[in-house]
Write a structure and sequence with these properties.
Elements (H helix, E strand, L loop, with lengths): L16 E5 L10 H15 L4 E3 L3 E9 L1 H5 L11 H8 L12 E10 L6 E7 L5 E3 L3 E5 L4 E6 L4 H25 L2 H5 L8 E2 L8 E3 H13 L7
Parallel strand pairs: 3-4, 7-10
Antiparallel strand pairs: 1-5, 2-6, 3-5, 7-8, 8-9
Helix pairs in contact: 1-3, 4-6
Length: 228
């Protein structure tokens, strides 16, 4: 389980992200207040994490509820009706996902237990190396529609090298795609980190490639820059 505010080490990131809540789920058509209450409980835990997952994830939601409450109450929602509010709360700058578009697979189940107090567990399985620190996170718009997440606290010269490499890779991919019409063949030239569509980075800081490159070049020319 990852629940530390320290920089996660390699062993931490091999585990699942687990969020346990002392409440039951909220149905999709619940009031805004009830959905916001669930979101607040989830965010209390995810904002403590100093990283965001950047790759595809598998999400498992387990709802613990007494069998009598499940079968003999009209207030108990269907399991397929509780997914969206929970997934929405996982995304964003103070979440653990950039966007719930990253969810490749999801499972949801309820389990009978002996208390009438409900509980909810959200378990997120991910690749251990597909993450980025929240501090200094910037999305660079490499094309009008595609952005790359970047740790902007890296040294200025290192950032310029990364931008140059990404620009070249994307340019080559577009040329290969035009020649071959084969997306998968052309995409082999791309970095391991997949780009995000501009519509998926709501709430995150972003800059165009040219804006960020100009800013970095100005920093290098500054007399106060320690890299000079």
């Amino acid at each position: 389980m990852i629940n530390s505010t320290e920089r996660p080490d390699e062993d931490d990131l091999k585990g699942d992200v687990v969020i346990t809540l002392p409440v039951g789920p909220v149905r999709f058509k619940a009031s805004r207040e009830r959905k916001q209450a669930l979101t607040s409980l989830i965010k209390q835990q995810t904002r403590k994490l100093n990283f965001l997952l950047t790759g595809e994830v598998h999400v498992n939601i387990t709802w613990m509820i007494h069998e009598q409450d499940r079968y003999e109450s009209h207030r108990s929602p269907d399991v397929d009706n509780i997914l969206k509010p929970a997934l929405d709360a996982l995304q964003g700058p103070d979440g653990v996902l950039i966007n719930d578009w990253q969810v490749q697979a999801i499972s949801c189940a309820w389990i009978d237990w002996t208390t009438h107090d409900e509980s909810l567990e959200i378990r997120i399985r991910h690749m251990g190396d597909e993450w980025i620190e929240k501090e200094g996170l910037l999305f660079v718009r490499m094309t009008p529609t595609l952005c790359m997440p970047l740790n902007s606290t890296l040294p200025t010269r290192a950032l310029l090298i990364i931008l140059d490499a990404w620009e070249k890779q994307i340019s080559v991919r577009e040329k290969l795609l035009a020649l071959s019409k084969d997306y998968y063949a052309a995409n082999r030239i791309m970095p391991v980190q997949r780009p995000f569509h501009t519509s998926r980075i709501r709430g995150f800081p972003s800059m165009t490639l040219q804006q960020f490159r100009t800013q970095l070049q100005d920093q290098l020319r500054s007399p106060q820059n320690p890299e000079k």
